[in-house]
Amino acid sequence: MKRYSGIIIAMLILLLVYVFQQISYVGILNALLSENLSISHSYTVFIINRTIRLIINDGACMLLIWSLFGEMKYLAAAFVVFLVELFFILPIYFVVKLNLEGASEISSPLLSQIHRMIVNPLLMIILIIGFYYQKVTTGKRV
């Protein structure tokens, strides 16, 4: 029962993040902060919003991985992918995106695909498929 609850919660979180992808997390932070500390620079708003969305998406995917496989080795591998994504790939995306197009929501076709790979949970979904394939090929029950 716990396993299915985790799967449902993770999928619900992913769905909510997708449905409310236009939400401004910075707007929520600004409502909580005093006026002197409010965040208003467009690049900063863009970076914070995308980073928070990445963290929520990947956190939900890690919950999904834990619920599906229940083994720490899979969760540890997912966490390493998350850290690489957060500290290496995401900053490169920000530099390219902000230098080429600015903080606009519309991206060129190339950057749009990179955005889907990084900010959306595509890397984690590919990881889940890989874990499942590994379990099937080694003969272990999922």
How would you characterize the overall build of this protein?
The chain is an all-alpha fold. The protein has one domain (2-138). The protein has helices at 2-19, 25-32, 42-69, 72-100, 109-118, 122-138. It is globular, with a radius of gyration of 17 Å. The chain starts with a helix and ends with a helix. The relative contact order is 0.13. The mean pLDDT is 85.
Total discrete domains: 1
Q: Which whole number gives the mean pLDDT?
A: 85
Q: Which sheet architecture does the biggest sheet show?
A: none
- What is the H/E string? HHHHHH
Oligomeric category = single chain
DSSP helical segment count: 6
Number of DSSP strands? 0
Q: What class, by secondary structure content?
A: mainly alpha
Distance between the termini: 15 Å
> Low-confidence parts, pLDDT < 50 over ≥5 residues?
none
What shape does the CA trace take? globular
Report the helical percentage.
over 70%
Question: What fraction of the residues are assigned to beta strands by DSSP?
Answer: under 5%
